[in-house]
Every structure is written in structure tokens, then in C-alpha cells.
Amino acid sequence: MSAPLRAFRVRGRGGAQKFGVAAGSLRGLLRKGCRLLQLPLAGSRLCLYEDGTELTEGFFRALPPQTELVLLGPGETWRGCFSDVGRLLAASHGQRDAVVEAARRLLADERAPARQKLLVDLLHTLDENILAEDKQDDGKWFEGLESRFKNKSSYMRYSCESRIRSYMKEVSGFISNVHPTAREAYKRIIDLMLDKLKSVKYNGCYFDRREEEEAVRLCTAEGWFSCQGPFDSDYCPSKHSINPYSNRESRILFSTWNLDHIIEKKRTVVPELAEAVKTRDGREVNWEYFYQLLFTLDNLKLVHIACHKKTNHNLSCDKTKIYRKRKQTHKIS
Prior knowledge:
Layout: E1 6-12, E2 19-23, H1 26-37, E3 45-48, H2 57-62, E4 68-72, H3 85-90, H4 96-108, H5 115-126, H6 152-173, H7 183-199, E5 225-226, E6 241-242, H8 248-254, E7 258-261, H9 265-278, E8 284-285, H10 287-295, E9 300-303, E10 323-324
Parallel strand pairs: 1-4
Antiparallel strand pairs: 1-2, 3-4, 5-6, 7-9, 8-10
Helix pairs in contact: 4-5, 7-10, 9-10
């Protein structure tokens, strides 16, 4: 059975004009795009306009409709939206010469690890709406959203809260797999976790650029998010970054980024919690340790979809933290 058709916006490397193209597979989209832009099918490929990530069939299936793509012919490259720096600069005034010189130095140094980040900062200075917060100042950003969202940060908080709520739903739904004699204790732990999540508003602050405490948000004050790399690495080799506050497309594309559990939620943390409740034998389960693993940045990494490894992480919970030491009471003689 063929996949349903989805529409995408496709442009060539050298032009700004975008074409609507519908396809159910990456191969089909590539074929239609090559015919439209008169490029040879052999050697051509599609990548994200935003950051230049080349599409695979699996990546293609995860993309939301209307994502902007660039069709590259044989031998062509695309550095992401930074490839449009020259076009953007042509429309700027004032400090144009200084900005051009800075961009040239960065682009000349292919091995500079901060090149992509600095180019992102450059685009930030050229984007007039990147700091707009309210709906009245950037109405296009809110297209397709419910009318209750009046500013960008409120929607971004909701976006993060929705992810955390889905994790809580998975933990609650696992109760059917818990041993019958332990289900009541498991449910009590769920209730404790839920109360704590409600008290912190489901950690929506992680995506809120207005959050005053830098340590509890994943973005800069301007709204830039950086990929934290695969679970087995301390950095992103491709230096992926995005600002979902900047425009509607970036907001939509950000939904494909993952809050990845380093110690896996489904394979490890939740089953370990169920086992701990079952075999507690009078001991007190340290539910707050499991809460940290499931819902906080202690065990969550924000990763670009290309850096999200779905293989077994082969990491386990800390056995010394599963149970809490009970406080001893001393008799006074």
C-alpha cells in the first residue's frame, strides 16, 4: 500500500522561488522535483533548507508537511539557510561591510567548530521578527495554532509540557504490566510524580526563552536551541541549531527534534521502576530518582532528529539510588 501524498515546498540551490510538490516517498519527491527544476535524477538529492541535513527515507517520513527543502544537483552543496546570507545581506544597510567580512572569515575556515553557530547568530541580527513575542507583532508565526496562544513563549511552554505529559501517560499506562501485588504501590508513586509535575507546570520552562533561570531552560534568551548530540556523545558533530521563535517554519520543524532519554524510558527506567516496587520487600522506593530520570534534564537531551539514535542505549539505572534509606529513630534513655 502506497503512502499518502504530502505536500512540501521545494526550491533549487540558486533560486528563491519555491514550488509545491506532493509525494508519498522520498524517491517520488526527488523524481518530481528533478522534472520540475530540470535536473538529472542521477546524483541529485534533497536536504532541509533550514540546516542542510540530507534526507533519507526514514527522515522524510518524519517531516511535517510544508517543510521547505532544497533540491541539489550533482556536485552541489547546501550549508543550510546560511547559504542565503549573501541574499539577506544585499537587503541590509549600515553595517553591511563588517558583516560581509565576518561571514567570509567564517566560511573560509571549514574546520571552525563554531562556524555554524556564528552564522546562526548572524542571521539572528538580520531577522526582524526573531525577537517579536506577541501575536500582534508576528501574526504569521501563529498561523495554524489555537487562538488561545497570544505570545510565542506561551505556545513553546505548551509544546514542552505536552511532551512531558506524554511521558507521564506512558508511565501510567505501564501499570497493566506491573505485578498485581505491586500495582497499588506503583499507582501511589505515579500520583506523587504527577503532583510534583503539576507543581512545576510540567517543566514547560525548558522551552521558554523568558525563563529567568538559565539552568532550567534549553534555549538562549533570544530563543536559540542547540542539539546536545547523540546519547553517547557530549556534543553534536553537525552543530545543529534552530530558533523556533524566529518564523513559522522553524516552529514546525522544531517539533521533529527529540527530548531523548539518555537512560531509556521504555526499555529501562519504567520497567526498573515496576521491578523496584515489586521487590521492595519493606524498602522505600526512591521515586524522586525515577522522576529525575523520566522528566528532568538530569536524563533528557534535546537532539536533532538526525542525531537521535534509536538503537539500544545499553545504559542502566544506578542500583544504589533505587531505594531510599529510611531514617532511623533512636530511643532516648
